[in-house]
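WP5 quarterly update. Target: SIS domain-containing protein. Source organism: Actinomadura parmotrematis. Length: 347 aa.
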Amino acid sequence: MTTSRMRAEIGEQPGALDRTIDGLLPRVPDVARLARDTRQVLFIARGSSDNAAVYGRYLAEARAGRLATLAAPSIATTYRRDLDLSGVLAVAISQSGKTEEIVQTLEWAARCGARTVAVTNGHGSPLAEAAEVALLTEAGDELAVPATKTYTTQLAALAVLGLGLGADVAGDDLRRVPDQVARLIEATEASDALPEIVAGLAGVPGAVVSGRGLAFGTALELALKLKEACYLHAMGLSYADLLHGPIAVVDERTPAILVAAGDGPTLPGTIALAERVRGAGAAAFGVGGGAGLAAASSAALAGPDLPEWVAPLGLIVPGQILVENLARALGLDPDVPRGLNKVTQTD
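Structure tokens (predicted):
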């Protein structure tokens, strides 16, 4: 069987991450200087980039002590309402750097008094040119429509942003990420759990994908990939929100995919949720979470051996491989999902 572009680009992630981390770690002082007089972070993004922004938000709040929010670009582009953004660090994230809505919203933020940062793989793009500091990722060309290496390198750039914001973490943890991702790719493809989970998802109409805290963005991104490439009705939810009612949809026809880092304060709750899901007669498929989540799950894919703050850079990788395998099992082309283009323009 011919290797899909998506699978090839999944395999390019260790090199892309290594180049990106090497290039961006020296930019930490630039971010720190720009952020020095700000008190809040505003993330501007859509699609996979918005899921990366969720990671950035939790990192800023949980580890750097900065209030962070996700922007509603329509306030700038549709309602055309100016706000007082003095004291705000606006961070726009776009794989291509060409999405007009994101560029316009960053320019709006600057006019409203914000300091500006761009995270993009588009060197020389309008977004990079519009920002005071551009954190340029080194993913290279990405040909498959579903984002893989552009997403993980965005997370690396946001980890660098977190260091510039003063996050109480060890920057050396970032250096371990490329090797961990390479290990994960090999381990996931050799895992007996991979075909078991693919089979479990191939015959159902939908699934719930859940995580919390720093892993929440991973849950949202995995759900998006299942929708994009496999046309599965996948609902991405924080497990706290899931327990407030939507857990009623989890049954023998709607399994749960639960993602977690191998440590951190959200892990016990994720394990408890896996036990509850299985107790209700549904399948619970784990991604990450160490031995505890694996034991509580119907089947599980191992996650990275990384501390919680950088675990999302590796945690999505088993999910990407799962999606690519599931798409092919369903007879779908993961490279060119129906109705999607690489650059999406919105008003």
